[in-house]
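User: Hi! I'm a student and our assignment asks us to look at how structure tokens line up with a sequence. Could you show me two examples?

Assistant: Happy to help. In each example below, the sequence comes first and the structure tokens follow. Example one:
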Amino acid sequence: MADVGDAEPDAEPDAEPDAEPAEPPSQAPEPGREPRRRKASRRLALGVGSVVPGTPYRLHRWLGDGGMGAVFEAQHVDTERRVAVKVLHAQRRTLKWVVEGFRNEARASARIGSPHIVDIYDFKELDDGRLLIAMEFLEGPTLHEVISNEPLDWPRLVAVTRQVCKGLSAAHRAGIVHRDIKPENIILIRRDGRDDFVKLLDFGVALFIQDGSTVRMSGTAQYMAPESSEGVSDARADIYSVGCLLYALIVGDPPFEGNTPSDILAKQREQEPLPPSRSADRPVPRDLDALVLRCLAKDPDERFQTMDELEAALCEVQLANGWVTAWDDLAPPEVEEERRARIVAGLAELSAKARPRATSWPRLLLVGLLAAVAVTVAVLAWPRADSTEVDDPLEEHAQAAQRAAARFYFVYPPHSDPDGSTAYRELLALEDLGTRAAEQRGAQLRQEFATTLVRLGDRYWDFEGARPFAYEYYASALVFAEDEHARERTGLSPAGLERLRTRAATGDFTELELLATEPLLALADPDPKTRVEKLEALRSEHSVPASVAASLDRVLEHPEHVDSHVAQADPPRVDPTPPSDGDDGEGSTDGGGGSTGPVPAVDGPDDEPPPDKPKPELPKRDPAAARALVAEAAGLMARGDRAKAEILYNRALEADSRNVEALDGLAQISFVQSRYAESAKRLERAVKLSGRSPSRWLKLGDAYFKTLRYGAARKAYQRALELGDPEAPGRLKKLESKLGPEDEG
């Protein structure tokens, strides 16, 4: 068994692993309990083969000796259950923080209730004053032991880290920050016939969250967040630690080493880590590289904000690289509906492709269940025909088209898989079935995909350097369906469009052309920060053609254009430039920028657009137009159409950036889609503009609560209470119940 705590199981003790202090100290009673009267007594003997006095546990063998206590394999004398027993060192029982850590470890398991947290069965105080914990007995290596022998391959790395995220997500929801995530505190056991089921250990230094509090610095320097060394931690400190863990799994060592803990902590605070790809002795996918560096941001606000967000990003890296893991049937992360649906559908597709022709019925059942979940969840993201069988060829092609579109492979396949599936090729296969139902479903999907692509084109049309990419989105939209707006913007000739459709149907694209489309995937990412990170990664890799790189440089000179939520509504129409003499529509698209920004995968337009003009000044405020848009958006919200409502709310803010109702509406949409940090930012701005609404403060408190910012939530609820919100007392009571009386303040 691996150590359940800090024990070192390789050493055998010469004597019992405790030394008794000169006089047993008295201990203050817990609140609500009578002081326990006991005489100063000799330390109880804990001999292998004997029952621990006052407990039902018989010790079988000593497993190790850690910083807080000794660990034994034991057995309950009545139930015969095997357990691990940890007994606090006698000389440590006078240290308040050690005793509190021991108690934390016991109550953390009860609070969290996750299969990825070691189960605690019993907690006792022995007659000599020492504390004892009886916990789940785990047989398996620590992650440290595993990677000491050989590095994890990419699928195994994803499977293990996803489970770490799940355990920590459950802890954070329970108001607990682990603060000591490292390979030594992760055990891999066998469960359900599979290896690598993760168990997180050692919550002895966990922080029971009280936002804004300063606490004793605890943890391991190589895996400690910069802010933790100053005694300030929230859930995002664990995200940093998981970044250090991932770095160690990829490279073999954590990002920073030093001669002393102080040296290492100084580097954690002051030095930027090298990308894993520059330190590892194996090629590292650039999206995994970017994910790790985001976890390791010095500013907590620049990291992933929740473990669920981090797990979702891991899943997306997995899908982008086509990795199949032994644990792809894990529950999907709790993120917004559309993102969750894409993840579930993508994992189902991977499992189906990896499934052998002849397999055992449990595995078939497993994959079938996962596929069923994917179909169910995908309903949230994509409208569907009323009813067809899952194994119907029509439905197979429709779902494959939707999955490809969800990963933004509409027309062009992945550069890493030129023969891979695209939404357009799956759509053609569906329509080739020749049935009336296939025709109707194909028409529906064509319109859906075209609408999405036109919106992406609209998003980037007026942004510095991004117009060539907008052309590409518009041209891709025309591949699926005729759209007057897209046709005007591109000027693509009928011959040029037909040629693009033919190449999209056959997958006849060069490597250079597919490389040129990589920025389109990055710009389409729903997360603003991730867009910028992906674009920067593309630019730093020098993998895109020079002409596209020039456009990327111009875009990255103005990252605010892609690091923000932009209204996806139709902007004013722009008349195309009259065609030049002799232009037969066969040329290449240059986006009006000469050689600085083509996306070479598209045959050029008949009408070359004028050069990019300086970005026009922002329009003056139009409060009346904003109010009208908000009223229309509110009607859409009442009918459940949040997607269109979000567009109108954003347009309202374009008309009047001080429209508080538009901010409220966007905050509500973000909240119901589990984008809690984004919701909080909207509401923070709203209360600055209009801080007299008690319900707005209450909602801000709810958003803070969901992101584990409990101190900020308390202040928001208290402000709502001061303004007379009738629900504020209940929220405050719930908050105090969540924190527990020992965390009040």
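Example two works the same way, sequence first and then tokens:
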Amino acid sequence: MRQWLLVGKFGAAGESRSKLIDPIPFRVGRRPEASLSLPRATVSGLHAELFTIEDRLYVRDLGSTNGTFINGERIRGEAELDEDDVVQFADVALRVASGAEDKESQTMCEDFCDHALARVQFDKLIRDGIVTPYFQP
């Protein structure tokens, strides 16, 4: 059976961590009893839940105030997640991975989720024609 993880800066000291998505359903929220507790004012008490169907990972927004996003797009209801997607609970962005849980990662991470989210949002601005690039010689 495939193991899914969330990777990002959610530890007490803001270090990069990975969290095995277990048990299923895996609830994310501000409440201490959530499977992944994110003590941020922007995150709802019970913000979202992750669940699997036949080794596929899904996320369901639980009526959160500030929304759940996949690669910068707000979801309504539930949506499927793929490996390397950036899932965002309000302003907390985490990357979806599969494999073994790494409790004490030796790799330092410097805001990769912030950079990934910025890139997704920039690409959306260009794609939707909200901004127009001008090239100067």
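Here is something you could point out in your write-up. The chain has one domain: 4-127.
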